[in-house]
Amino acid sequence: MLFVYLGWSITGSMQYDRELHTATRLANGQVLVTGGKNTLGEILNTTELYDPTTETWTSTGNMNSIRVYHTATLLSSGKVLVTGGQINSSAYLNTAELYDPSTGIWSSAGTMNSSRAGHAASLLTNGKVLITGGYTATTMNIYLNTAELYDPSTGLWTNTGSMNDIRCLHTATVLANRQVLVAGGGNSISTFSSSAERYDVSSGTWTYTGSLMYARAYHTAATLNNGKIVVTGGINTLLVNSTELYDPSTGQWTATGNLSEARRFHVSIQLTNGKVLVAGGYGSSILRSAELYDPSVGIWTVVQSMNYTRRSPAAALLINGKVLVSGGRRSSGGSSSSELYQP
After folding, report:
1. In the chain, where are the structural domains located?
2. What is the chain's Cα-based Rg?
3. Which CATH superfamily is domain 3-342 in?
4. Nearest one of 276, 335, 341, 315 to 25, comparing CA atoms
5. pLDDT of residue 208
């Protein structure tokens, strides 16, 4: 295994320790984090902003609801749409909210047709947001195949075609042809899916595409410069270190280099140089290791580890090309710390 030591450096700490939160880079270059839960397991409605110029965090307006396993999507207007999530172990949200960076205030964005957590959100090229799958609850966990659309111009939610398979904790990626690829996910508490399907925006319908080589949930997906999608890690009863590539032109998945460590609850993000950074997560223990994928050779290279172990952190690519990784559970509890990766 080749080792290349590139740099992590500590930056300012958040106001609150949190994991399972979201991180969204705003149009002004700042990063908004929302919700999650703290060391005590308390679910949060607090949000805060990271300023890359000062490397400091400041609190901003609180969401109207506490949320974990929710989504956050940057709209073309510059506002951020937050959807769904859990408020405790058996209560799930159908509400949505909008954050306005110009005022720092959250406002209602209506209600989805289904309450859901562990779902995915995709910003379509027409400006609408597609919400897919997840799980909800009445007297037991119910896994969803439903999908719906949010129209920022009207503030309305409408149902669209349902996926062929139920799935939660899956990935959803907008392809170059404007279709949306969903892959994998859980379809019960203990079973996982290898299926993948594509959403046609013009018809609102779903069509199966090639299946993943390995069933997985809690994995990540990143889009490469060549339009292919690289999926990393996850779990399918056992932790997975395999990675695979999806080719939209053929609809097929192929194996690519393995991660040095099996992991889930990790982050992956494409860098400005086209490589993909994977960091943290949970393997045989909570990890601080990081590795880089080079699409030109299909190989993962171990790079310098983060300063802290982190399970379920959040990551955002900054305008200056650095990667901000924040929070996540550490081996000794929750974390408010953040650090920067310099490619």
Report:
1. 3-342
2. 19
3. Kelch-type beta propeller (2.120.10.80)
4. 315
5. 98
